[in-house]
Structure formats: C-alpha cells, structure tokens
Amino acid sequence: MLPRSAPRSLARLAAVQALYQLDITGADVNAVIAEFAEHRLGQAIEDADTGPADDAFFSDIVTGVVRDQRAIDPSLHATLAAGWRLARIDSILRAILRSAAYELSHRPDIPAKVVIAEYIDVAHAFFEGDEPKVVNGILDRLAHQIRGDELGPGVSDDE
C-alpha cells in the first residue's frame, strides 16, 4: 500500500528512503538529496505513476533530521517501551519515526494528526505486520509531549 499521492506524501516516503540510505551507507546527505532529486523524486513507484513530489519539503525533512538527530533520538527513546532502545529498531522504522519526530517538533504548520496519519501510511508502504500500529503508538505519545496544547489530554501511562 502506497501513501496518498499528494506531493508532500510522496516527499515523506522519499525522505524515509533517503534517511534509510544515509543510515545504512553513511553517505553524504547532500549527495543523497541530489541523487533523489535527479533520479527518484516523481518517478513511478511499483509501476504506478505517482505524480510529482514536493522537492523542498523532501529536502527539509532529510536535512532537518540529519541536523537535529541528536535531539530527535532522545525524544523518541523516551517514548519507547521499557527495555527498548532506538538502535534496536528496524532501520526503516527508525527513519519513519525520525522523520515524523522532525515534523512534529519543527513544522507547526502541519497538524500533528496529519503528521501521524501520513507516517502510518508510510509504514504501511514498508510493513505488513504490526509496525504501523507501533508507529501510531510512538507518534501519539511523542505528539502529546511536543504538541500537547494542540492535541489535548492524552492517555496517561497509568492506564
């Protein structure tokens, strides 16, 4: 299942792929952004014409996650179940969570519920198991920490 075909949805999907590539290869962020801009953004996915991706939004997510990863990772780690570390999580899942965490903390122009729904869709593009539910739970907790005023009261840890 692919995420919605809106330019920002496609940019999010590509950003997760680029962050995965950066995580696995250790390549230069500018080189990966250029590669995606030249060869991947707006290209057909699984033989489906997806339309154009929002290049600027893609670049913002990728560069923002790389730049702010030292702040993003501890905030994500704090939302994980006891005994879990971000380093133990699948690389794609980690890229999804980092991208969403960046948007939640740095893109107040995008409603938190939209960010969560979009990244659940991205998770569905990569996983068929429980991972989208995991993404939902972690991002819901993180969104309540970062944007509690926007979302209202969340479920307490006691429940």
Topology summary:
Elements: H1 7-25, H2 29-40, H3 55-77, H4 91-106, H5 112-126, H6 131-146, H7 148-151
Helix pairs in contact: 1-2, 1-3, 1-4, 1-5, 2-3, 3-4, 4-5, 4-6, 5-6
The figure for the number of domains is: 1
Portion in helices: 55-70%
CATH architectural category: Orthogonal Bundle
CATH superfamily: NusB-like
For the record, the CATH class is Mainly Alpha
pLDDT < 50 stretches:
none
Fraction in beta strands: under 5%
Strand segment tally: 0
Q: Quickly count the helices.
A: 7
Overall geometry comes to: globular
CATH fold-level assignment: N-utilizing Substance Protein B Homolog, Chain A
The value of Rg in angstroms is: 15 Å
Amino-to-carboxy terminus distance: 32 Å
Main beta sheet, described?
none
Give the mean pLDDT: 86
Structural class per helix/strand content? mainly alpha
Helix and strand element order: HHHHHHH
